[in-house]
Structures are given as structure tokens and as C-alpha cells.
Task: structure prediction
Amino acid sequence: MKLYDHPTAPNPRRVRVFLAEKDIEVERVSVDLQAGEHKTPEFLQKNMNGQIPVLELDDGTCISESIAICRYFEALHPDPSLFGTTAKDIARIEMHMRRIELVLGRNIGVSWVNGAVVAQIAKGRFTQIPEAKTQSDAAVNAYYERLDGELANRAMIAGDDYSAADISAMCVIDFAEQLVNLKPDDGLSNLARWRKQVGSRPSASA
Amino acid sequence: MKLYDHPTAPNPRRVRVFLAEKDIEVERVSVDLQAGEHKTPEFLQKNMNGQIPVLELDDGTCISESIAICRYFEALHPDPSLFGTTAKDIARIEMHMRRIELVLGRNIGVSWVNGAVVAQIAKGRFTQIPEAKTQSDAAVNAYYERLDGELANRAMIAGDDYSAADISAMCVIDFAEQLVNLKPDDGLSNLARWRKQVGSRPSASA
Result:
């Protein structure tokens, strides 16, 4: 089994953190994104989306989409559970994780593809729309404020316990800060408290 | 238990189709979207995103995000499984469902918020960016072609069997055709074959 990976991309990091929380070791293959290795015909056979991470099983089956890879390992190694075990917990974690991805993550993605770093490293691959970035930057900052309010009432993103929703949120917010110039305002103290907590888990540096 | 619903919105339909496939009946409450009932303080208590569907349990717990609601019912009523039972099936279905949502569904959403119907029914709620719609329309049509190619090699979206990925794909494509003016080209015969198959299941009219 092999995990196609890259040290700074946010989605492979989600899988690495997830595996670290479950204490699972998987052989990793680093994909050279700058050289476009994820867009070669050989790699597109593994994932036609041309993205990492990809988990290649010993029988040749390739699984892409980081959460799909995480669910594969959750099914094989259910403890500790990161997607919930009761119907209500499963639903609650999925709800919060999807909000993080579909609202926060999506807007961070829009700011990223229309931003300065992409303009430099992927010249010509995207037609950038500055107005879209203005909208998404505002949406990201509004979501940070909302999360800060939510985290006044609970320890973690989806409730009292650490879950896959925390992994998703940590990875997208760290990415936004480091590569999209969208750092949460220092005044958002609940969000800062949560970031410190999840960021100091040993898995965070996986 | 109550499901907050609307007859023509695509996300509540995903839940209705899912419930019909599992032969589960749930009391439904229709939310008047045109009157903005989903944006009232009372409704925002149920889902701060101001969106439907929402499943309200008898203990007052509210679950939003259609797939989170579906996972709640999958956990309580595992047969027939629509999210898979083995690690590999779970991962495969999640992978295909996420591709449908994160690429196709996301672009249909961009075409929708920047399109003619929204300009009419939600005047002023969105600042529309025509250039974003040009990009997303092209991405949707490219995805239809890709899906057509995939469906040359397998019966359903995620493999041989009907799954939650088919429900997601059917609901977003029907929505795109009916309300976003993005009908798949008639020449895409594999996609047309699949649409006919899933659309003729009794659940499709739920």
C-alpha cells in the first residue's frame, strides 16, 4: 500500500494527521507538484482528477479524495473513531465537517486560485477573477468569526471530542494562513484557543 | 422527527430519494423559501447556515447537510446499504460522491448563483460575476463529457451498484437541467442511459 503525498499541500496533510491519530504507518511517495508530476498520463491513471493524495492498494485499486482515504482506514481500524460511532455522532461530525469544507474550505479555495501565489506558480493554468477573490476573502473572514462564536460553546469543531472535523478545519485554516494570506484575526480568542489545542497534538506535525 | 423540506430544491430531494430507497417515512415540513422562511431567527436556530434540509429529532437535536442526514439514517437502517459496507466499497462510494459534489456540484452552484434565475428571485442577495459563470458553465459541460466516458465502463456512478453517489449525481444534474439551463448534450449517450435508469427508479419521484 502506498500514499501519494506532498509535504505542504493541505489535503494530503489531512490524511497524514488522520493516520497519526490512529497510529497507522503507510509508505509514502512524494509527488513533485511543481514539476507537474500529478498531471502526467501515468498519474492520471491513478487519479483522473490529477490531485493528491491517492492511496494505492496492493491490488492496484486507487482511492483518491482525502476523506475517502480516511474512511477506508476508519473502516479497517475503527479505534479511536474519528467519524463517530452512534447515528447521532456520525451525523453531527459529518454535518460540521461538511460545513467546514463546503463553506470555509470552498471559499479558501476560491481565494487561493485567484490569488498571488497561484499567479506565480501556476502561470496560465487559471484565468483569475479578482472580484471572486474579494467575495471569498470576505466569506472566509466571516466564517472565522462564526467559528469563534461556535467555539465559545464547545471544545472542538463538532462537539466535546476531537474528530475528523477538527482535522479538516485545522488543515484548511493553516493552509489559508500560510499560503493564502488569510490568517484569523488575533482577537478571535476562542478560535485561537482551539487552534492551539489541535495544533499541539503530536498528529499536527505529521 | 421532522424533515424540513422543499419540493424543488436539489438538496432536500437527495434526502427524499435516499429515504425512499430505504423505505423510511418521515414527517415533512415544507419551508417557504420564496418568503425567506429559512432565514428567520427561528429557523436559524435549527440551522445557522439558513438552508434546508434539516432533520429535527424528537429530542430537539437538529441535523443539517443532506449527506449528514442520509448517514444518520444509514446508521439506523443499514439495509439496503447506500454508502457501502466493506472498507473498499465505503471508500469508492465516498470518492465518487465527493467528486460529483466538489467538482460538478460546486460548478453548478457557481453557475446558479451567477445566473438568470437567481438574479430574478434573490435580487441583491448575491453580487453576480458573469465571468465566474462562464468558467463554471464550461467546467460543468466538461464534467458531463467526463462522466459520459466513465459510464461507458460501469453501470452506475461508483461501480456496478446503485449508491448514494447516484443520488447526488441525479439530483444535481436534474437541477442543472431544470433551473440552471445546463442540460447534458444529447450526444452523451452513456450519461443519457444512466440518467434514464436512475430516473426511472420509483425513488426518483420522491
In short: Residues 3 and 55 of chain A are 5 Å apart (CA to CA). Chain A touches chain B at residues 48-49, 55, 57, 61, 63-65, 67-69, 71-73, 75-76, 86-88, 90-92, 94-95, 98-99, 102-103, 106, 127, 129, 131-132, 135, 146 (CB under 8 Å).
